[in-house]
Write a structure and sequence with these properties.
heterodimer; A: about 400 residues; mainly alpha; 2 domains; B: about 220 residues; alpha+beta; 11 helices; 4 strands
Chain lengths: ~400, ~220
């Protein structure tokens, strides 16, 4: 999972941490990495644990319901052919030998100084956290579905393999900056956002697909403009993001196997809601970090709109409805949300007492909510997989 | 480097002997901290049912068994005299070769992998394939010129159908590769996109040439 989704607040009363035990191999590497930088890891972990509305989330779900949904005994008609095809793809393991570092990394990191250094570290931390959150969720799903649907379970386990690899690679990147994320600590200390299975499908599908579009866009841009290639990690993005794209395909298959999540008016409303949450979260996040994107030669808003439009086109292959993001009014709304969000941040950073801050925030939050609501209500685009969609008979291929 | 592929095809085709034989091979852990390999490997051994789940739609056992032969060993597969099953997805050329840029990435990724693992190529892009004449239900819904992705690996074509979605999928038997991949000479021309806003250039026209059937490369060049 390379992107985050966070407009929904974590349910704080959900205190149960999933019974995750980091595998020994993983733990060892963390200790080794931490000891490589004995003075900093605490600080890095602390910085990463700062929970904000837009921070990358850790997800958890109703594992019992998941087990029921994919139980091949209960659902005898559960079509398995797409899962078996995906299992073959994941077992092929295209990137088995891809994530090998070289000495360019440290040299490049040493050259990144000044404000850009902090921005880079933040980028690595956030990316690592997002990948690691995917690892935790998929690992647990792989464990829980083992008995009821071994094929689906094994795919989850193989996806957690990918995510662990990605997170590990990013964490090694942090070591170039003399930092390390203490992932074991993160596992215990972070809040987990609870989503019902169907919401996990929508959210992780989008998260994986938007992750693909972000990474491939950065990769292709830097390939065309190598003078902005500040740090070699971007050179790995082309192969890397194919993993993200495949993970998204798996969630497509999961949803197609549960068409009740795709074929009614509620599914359409939820689809639009999740699209909006993911797009807005990314836009607001990135517009707070324009220095990073400008630093690698991208115009933040252009980059984001490209990613949103492409993700939306991809998503239209499975969600029954998507947003009309190519309508200029959509971008206008996003830009107004950025302005409001900047004012909100300014209030937060001001010297006012908490009561005054809250009074100042209230109208801004109302304005943000109204923009969000208006964007949600824009006329949607009917969409969906041709295997399910009503418009299929009219389609010319 | 061949075993993961053989393993995967083996499990789809329901060939437990391959699985158990492979299980004896030493584990390979990737250089980065891949934490789940060893566990999932153990589990794979325990849950044999993963290997014998019956496939529901596309891959009929006979054809997939041929696949596993072909992928599992480095010997050239017996191509002559034996009828083989070819699976394909098809859509108009603009969709396949011009619009869906992630498709190009998947093709490049797969050919890279085949090179790394010394696997013989078993997937091709066929422009205006002759075999379409056998599928009037497809051709009446197809914009022309059309391009098909053809492979002897059924599950992979199922995956590509899932990915591309706006394509039609079918399969046919053929006695030779040449017959299966025969095409009608066609010139492709794509209009430049009116409004290219991506912060990078498009993939170059002709990226698909390495994937055309053997022989047609020369024609093109």
């Amino acid at each position: 999972m390379a992107a985050e989704m966070a407009l929904l607040k974590p349910i704080s009363k959900f205190n149960r941490t999933p019974t995750f035990q980091p595998n020994n191999r993983f733990k060892t590497s963390i200790i080794r990495m931490s000891s490589a930088a004995p003075t900093k890891p605490k600080k890095a972990a602390k910085a990463a644990i700062k929970e904000t509305l837009l921070a990358p989330r850790f997800y958890t779900t109703d594992f019992d319901e998941m087990e029921t949904l994919f139980n091949t005994e209960i659902n005898k008609n559960l079509s398995q052919s797409e899962f078996e095809a995906l299992l073959q793809e994941f077992k092929t393991d295209y990137n088995q030998t891809h994530f090998v570092r070289n000495k360019e990394f440290k040299e490049a990191a040493d050259k990144i100084q000044g404000p850009m250094r902090k921005i880079f570290v933040e980028f690595l931390e956030r990316s690592c956290t997002a990948e690691f959150s995917g690892f935790l969720l998929y690992k647990e799903l792989g464990r829980r579905l083992k008995k009821t649907n071994p094929v689906v379970a094994e795919i989850f386990s193989l996806m957690s393999r990918d995510e662990a690899r990605h997170a590990g690679f990013l964490n090694k990147g942090l070591s170039d900056f003399n930092l390390a994320l203490d992932l074991g600590f993160l596992t215990k200390a972070r809040k987990y956002t609870f989503f019902k299975p169907k919401f996990i499908f929508y959210a992780t599908y989008l998260s994986e697909k938007i992750g693909y579009w972000r990474y491939i866009t950065i990769y292709r841009h830097l390939k065309a403009n190598p003078e902005y290639q500040l740090y070699p990690i971007f050179k790995y993005f082309e192969n890397w993001c194919q993993d993200e794209n495949r993970h998204g395909d798996f969630f497509s298959a999961l949803m197609k196997a549960q068409p009740q999540f795709l074929n009614d008016w509620k599914a359409k409303l939820w689809s639009r809601f999740f699209c909006l949450s993911v797009y807005v979260t990314m836009y607001l996040n990135d517009c707070q970090r324009t220095a990073f994107y400008e630093g690698i030669g991208l115009d933040t808003k252009e980059f984001d709109m490209h990613v949103i439009i492409e993700t939306n086109r991809t998503t239209a292959r499975i969600f029954p409805a998507v947003l009309d993001v190519e309508n200029p009014e959509f971008k206008a709304k996003l830009d107004r949300m950025v302005e409001i969000n900047q004012k909100l941040i300014a209030v937060g950073e001001s010297e006012d007492i908490p009561l005054v801050k809250n009074l100042k925030r209230a109208p801004l939050i109302a304005a943000l909510a109204s923009e969000l609501f208006a964007a949600y209500l824009m006329p949607p685009v009917e969409s969906g997989s041709v295997d399910l969609a009503e418009f299929e008979p009219q389609l010319v291929y | 480097m061949v075993y993961p592929a053989a393993l995967s095809v083996g499990s789809c085709a329901g060939l437990p002997p391959i699985e158990s034989e492979l299980f004896k091979r030493p584990l390979r852990i990737s250089p980065s901290s891949s934490s789940s390999s060893s566990r999932s490997f153990e589990r794979r051994a325990k849950t044999k049912e993963a290997a014998i789940i019956r496939s529901v739609s596309i891959p009929p056992p006979r054809a997939v068994a041929v696949d596993s032969n072909q992928l599992g060993s480095s010997d050239p597969p017996p191509q002559i005299e034996e009828s083989k099953k070819y699976y394909f997805v098809v859509a108009n050329a603009k969709f396949m070769l011009d619009e869906e840029e992630h498709f190009k990435e998947l093709m490049s990724e797969r050919i890279r992998l085949y090179g790394e693992r010394n696997r013989e190529q078993d997937f091709w892009l066929v422009i205006e394939p002759k075999f379409l004449d056998k599928f009037p239900n497809i051709t009446k819904r197809l914009k022309r010129p059309a391009v098909a992705l053809v492979s002897t690996n059924g599950p992979w074509i199922t995956f590509m159908k899932l990915r591309l979605d706006r394509v039609l999928a079918e399969s046919f038997d053929s006695e030779s590769l040449e017959e299966a991949l025969a095409c009608n000479p066609t010139d492709l021309r794509f209009e430049k996109p009116e409004n290219w806003v991506a912060p990078y250039p498009k993939y170059e026209f002709g990226w698909w040439e390495p994937f055309l059937p053997p022989g047609s490369n020369k024609q093109k060049a």
